[in-house]
Design goal:
Layout (H helix, E strand, L loop, with lengths): L1 E8 L3 H21 L1 E9 L16 E2 L2 H6 L5 E4 L6 H11 L4 E3 L2 H17 L4 E2 L10 H8 L5 E7 L2 H13 L3 H10 L8 H4 L2 H15 L9 E2 L7 H9 L2 E12 L10 E12 L11 E8 L3 E8 L3 H21 L24 E11 L4 H11 L4 E5 L8 E12 H12 L4 E9 L4
Parallel strand pairs: 1-2, 1-4, 2-3, 4-5, 5-6, 8-10
Antiparallel strand pairs: 7-9, 7-11, 9-10, 11-12, 13-15, 13-16, 14-15
Helix pairs in contact: 1-11, 3-4, 4-9, 6-7
The structure holds NADP nicotinamide-adenine-dinucleotide phosphate and L-homoserine (HSE).
Length: 439
């Protein structure tokens, strides 16, 4: 049986998971692919570090260059994370014509355009199934399964840490900070948890999916992102009473500009806490699970669901890339399907200011006659329509919550109106403003 010799650059959570999964299912993978996958070297930073998944000491090393340049190593698997050394690792491997498998969404988000061009130039390939939504094979689905569709809408719960936190806040009535510590302990959160909770991790993944779905590269700064720090258990309770669940939702939508000569649709790519109707399937995606809901113009609605983070789920995605890489090596092709299909000219990204949505708004106000009238006047002047107002019973004291459900409004109009409302003397805290998705 032919052998593919691998160099793993990174032997942490994911690297250890891949090593372990190859021990467990390597024989199965060989049966299915006709290749034996042999790990020749695992690069780590600290040789003495205790490793939950034991890796034989003779395989460990600290010199990534020696591994990437080793002529015996045919496939480089970058699982170190980050965007500095990892970029050098991937660049070097591609420059000498070696295919690379990576799980690194931060790297792809920042340098994907450069790296895919480099792979093309050196007639090799870059595989990245594990970079988005862990064990869910969404890259393969977009590149292959839905290749005959225009993707009009894609919605994703793409950050396991945030989904875990929001789920426990909802089910157990906990506050944000109480749950964050446990998400870190369980290894879901990135080393810097602000990447998760401020929406950057989900934005990187959304940018990669949007680029794939729409065929032109979308830069990370074009993805508007807000996180879940400001969400309180009060918002989760009120959203529940109104029939919604709050999720950190990535949205990739083709926005029709209406009629007009030479007017092209733009793409909305954003990540924000969002009210999802309880009867929509994404509302019941709980804990660390991810889901991606894709609407194609031929297929209609599809849903993929699975673990978006963690050792085994991510290792499963890496194994899938190893198999693809082996097939491509055997067939002597750069890639059966191009890694990133650049088939469209840049159609333009809809600025956040122009995004239109219904909104949930929670204000903290002084409970006295005239308060509601003042707020309604400012909303009316901004031509923002109110669909309902609730002042929930049972809140006593000087400040009480006041909830508005708002009809479709431009983001820019909403932020301007909220800033005016925030200056009223009867308003005691910044407004919480969350878009509502009707799918
Ligand atoms: P990790 O546990 O921190 O592992 C990183 C590994 O790389 C460690 O073995 C570390 O060595 C090694 N490393 C880091 N910098 C190095 C350097 N300069 N030289 C040599 N070795 C170095 O990270 P991870 O969670 O496995 O994540 C790896 C990648 O997978 C990241 O891109 C991440 O975004 C992505 N990913 C992770 C998950 C997940 O659930 N964890 C899910 C999907 C994608 P030591 O072991 O000696 O520290
Ligand atoms: N921190 C990420 C998450 C890991 O919580 O989803 C997977 O990319």
């Amino acid at each position: 049986m032919e052998q593919v010799t691998l160099g793993l650059v990174g032997g942490g959570t994911v690297g250890g998971g891949v090593f372990q999964a190859l021990e467990r299912n390597g024989a199965l993978l060989s049966l299915r692919t006709g290749y034996k996958f042999h790990v020749a070297k695992v690069v780590v930073r600290d040789l003495k570090k205790p490793r939950p998944v034991p890796i034989p000491s003779e395989l460990l090393g600290t010199d990534w260059r020696a591994v990437v340049d080793d002529p015996a190593i045919k496939l480089v698997v970058e699982l170190m994370g980050g965007t500095s050394t990892a970029r050098h690792v991937v660049r070097r491997a591609l420059e000498i014509g070696k295919p690379v498998v990576t799980a690194n969404k931060a790297l792809l988000s920042a340098y994907g355009e450069e790296l895919f061009a480099l792979a093309r130039k050196h007639q090799t390939n870059l595989y990245y199934e594990a970079s988005v939504a862990g064990g869910i094979p969404i890259i393969k689905v977009l590149r292959e399964g839905l290749i005959g569709n225009r993707i009009t809408h894609l919605y994703g719960i793409l950050n396991g840490t945030c989904n875990y936190i929001l789920t426990r806040m909802k089910l157990e009535g906990l506050e944000f900070q109480e749950v964050l510590d446990e998400a870190q302990r369980l290894g879901y959160a990135e080393a810097d948890p602000s990447l998760d909770i401020d929406g950057h991790d989900a934005a990187q993944k959304a940018g990669i999916l949007a680029s794939l779905a729409h065929g032109f590269w979308i830069r990370p700064e074009q993805v508007s992102a807000s996180g879940i720090r400001t969400i309180t258990k009060l918002d989760i309770q009120f959203a529940g009473q109104l029939g919604y669940t709050i999720k950190l939702l990535a949205k990739v939508k083709q926005i029709d500009p209406g009629t007009g000569a030479n007017v092209r649709s733009k793409i909305q790519v954003s990540v924000s806490p969002t009210l999802v109707p309880n009867d929509h399937v994404l509302a019941s995606v709980n804990h660390v699970f991810n889901a991606v809901f894709v609407r194609g113009d031929v297929v209609g609605d599809t849903l993929l669901y699975g673990r978006g983070a963690g050792q085994d789920a991510t290792a499963s995605a890496v194994l899938s890339d190893l198999a693809d890489a082996a097939f491509d090596l055997r067939n002597g092709v750069q890639s059966r399907i191009p890694p990133f299909v650049s088939h469209e000219r840049n159609r333009g990204i809809l600025p956040l200011a122009d995004e239109v949505s219904p909104y949930y708004v929670r204000l903290t106000v002084i409970d006295k006659p005239g308060t509601l009238a003042k707020i309604a006047t400012l909303l009316g002047r901004a031509k923002i329509g109110i669909s309902s107002v609730i002042q929930p019973e049972g809140h006593v004291g000087e400040s009480v919550p006041l909830i508005f459900m708002i009809h479709d409004a431009r983001h820019a109009s909403m932020t301007r109106a909220m800033s005016q409302i925030g200056r009223l003397s009867v308003v005691r805290a910044p407004a919480v403003m969350i878009p509502v998705e009707q799918f």
